[in-house]
Amino acid sequence: MQATLTALLAKATAELPSLRTRADFEAAKARYVGPHGEFTALMKQMGAVPKEERPAMGKLVNEAKAQLQVQLDATLQRLADAEITAQLGPAIDPTLPSPDAGPGTSHPLTLVREEMCRILRKAGFTVVEGPEVETEYYCFDALNTPPDHPARDAQDTFYFPEKARFGNITKKTPEEKYLLRTHTSSVQIRTMLKGEPPIRVVSPGRVYRRDTSDATHSANFHQIECLYVDKNVTVRDLKALLDYIFATLLGKDTKTRFRPHYFGYTEPSFEVDLSAQHLPKVNKPWIEIGGCGMVDPIVFEGVGYDPKVWSGYAFGMGLERLAMLMYGIDDIRYFYQNDLRFLRQFS
Ligand code: DAH
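# 3,4-dihydroxyphenylalanine complex -> structure
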């Protein structure tokens, strides 16, 4: 019986690698281990083995059975792999040049975002990101936005239902609601709570507002936020950085001006206007581009910074508005339509 076992295993070892189809495999499997298979027949002979030889013989049979199973499994795996390879077609060489016209072009919003980040990195800023799902604390409370401020209104902000849960976004109080951030200013708070000054960060990202879509409004758009905290920071530093950014981005003929404004998180606060009439399609002397100001001492206190020691500035602006100015685009909806005739104009 031992010799028959060895012979059977040798036969399987020789036959299984030559199988090419699942049907052949199933037939071979049946011939070895099916109800009428050769191996099954051998097992049945165990009853005839003398009692004292049975334990040793049983061990041999079990070992042979395990070996046969390993070979059958490997064969099935080989056939399955071959099927997938056949479906995938011939192997490709990813190092070859693309047969298409080129690697594609960057989206104009990507171009503006990358250029802004590049300019700010050169000025010593680090790029950080914050979550798009926020809590009222980071988006409003910590930014000194009063409870009755219109920005908090459900007409203006997308709130999540009470039962919504986001494991990675921790609420400060159980009552506060989750929302989609209305501005990237929330990243200021996250950054300040994480570390000590001096701080120099820039944070680009998506923001959401309940706007109806038209040529200049979209419920989802992009902003870039900057925060600088150090000792003896002044409005002059803020103005100088903005002048530098826009001269680099839009050309040296670009001018900026500040108009007094109100934001809860800065004092004083300004709206920033740009003059860039050398750009195509810019026909107004001044265009509003963003908001800025000196970080309000109340915001510093809220994150545990001593406002007598630390000072800082912050600003935020829309990337779509900037891209529209730079490239002379007159409808914000072009950014989101994925029309190749539009996208291919940017490289
Ligand atoms: N968060 C403001 C907005 O969405 C923009 C802004 C204004 C950002 C003043 C700032 C700031 O950092 O200091 O309109």
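# post-check
The first strand starts at residue 126 and ends at 127.
The pocket of 3,4-dihydroxyphenylalanine is lined by residues 183, 185, 225, 263, 265-266, 269, 290-293, 314-316 (CB under 6 Å).
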